[in-house]
Amino acid sequence: MKILKRVLIGVAILAVTGIVIFLNTMDFTVSQEQIDSAFSGLNYQPEFKELDNRGRNLHYITIGDTSKPSFLFVHGSPGTWDNFLGFLSDEKLLEKYHLIAVDRPGFGKSDYGKPERSLKKQSEDILAVLIEEQTTATLIGHSYGGPVIMRMAIDAPELVDGLISVAGSVDPELEKTKWYQIPVHYKVLSWILPGFLYSTNEEILALKKELEEMIPCWKNITQPVSVIQGGKDNLVPEGNAYFIENMLPHNNPNMVIIPEMNHFVPWTNPDLIRDEMEYITRKIGN
């Protein structure tokens, strides 16, 4: 029995070690070579910038003619600005728009691994980018970026021209905590996770309560809104799209529901987002 216990303990230690090594070698970012290649030969070149807001470092990228309508991309959880590299390096978009993308707090070069659980504070941080750039913008939020952009429109409507929610996780009733999210919330186990997964876990654990607190504020969103959602989204249920429609009857959101589409719209169906960029531009009269 003693030998069996030792064997089982050894196996458990090896398993945990393997999981830790695996998690810490995960990397969803785009390589510098891919970034350089994407921007090579364009008429516009990106500017990579840093901004300090309330003691937090914000990293973001801008590209294009600042005299043209601005669009700001907000990634999901996890994610970084380069989730939207295909849009930022699109010559046709750059002929018409000024584009901005951010690393949200806790991701990429924005205080990596230091999560921000509050939607309101995330909103404040990203709004600081618009203030720094001296521009208003239409906001495009994917997944967790969806509630972030809605919060931004609530907090500073004067800076937000329009909204495009792409598979946005906005309905508090559809936020379900998974059993495995709880243990790694505590310091005794949180070290297992790499920084981007720790940030993801922390903000998602807080999301339901954050969304509940937003409910009375939805009536204050008056900008044009587009909603893109897939019917086969296994991460953000389709009901989130109809939640936006129900919360914003005064906006009459443009609903783009694709029954066979999954969650990863920016990569699998980018033209849907491009189409809604044109739609919102027409709606606001730019």
Topology, element by element:
Elements: H1 2-25, H2 32-39, E1 47-53, E2 56-63, E3 70-74, H3 85-88, H4 91-96, E4 98-103, H5 119-133, E5 137-142, H6 145-155, E6 160-166, H7 187-190, H8 195-214, E7 225-230, H9 239-247, E8 254-258, H10 265-268, H11 270-284
Parallel strand pairs: 3-4, 3-5, 5-6, 6-7, 7-8
Antiparallel strand pairs: 1-2, 2-4
Helix pairs in contact: 5-6
- Taken in chain order, the helices and strands follow as HHEEEHHEHEHEHHEHEHH
Termini separation: 76 Å
Strand order of the largest sheet: 1-2-4-3-5-6-7-8
Please give the largest β-sheet: 8 strands, mixed
Description:
It is a single chain. The protein has an eight-stranded mixed beta sheet, with helices on both faces. The N and C termini lie far apart (76 Å). Helix 5 (119-133) crosses helix 6. It has eleven helices and eight strands. 42% of the residues lie in helices and 17% in strands. It is an alpha/beta fold. It has helices at 2-25, 32-39, 85-88, 91-96, 119-133, 145-155, 187-190, 195-214, 239-247, 265-268, 270-284; strands at residues 47-53, 56-63, 70-74, 98-103, 137-142, 160-166, 225-230, 254-258.
Summarize the entry for a quick read.
The chain is an alpha/beta fold and 286 residues long.
Structural descriptors:
286 residues, alpha/beta
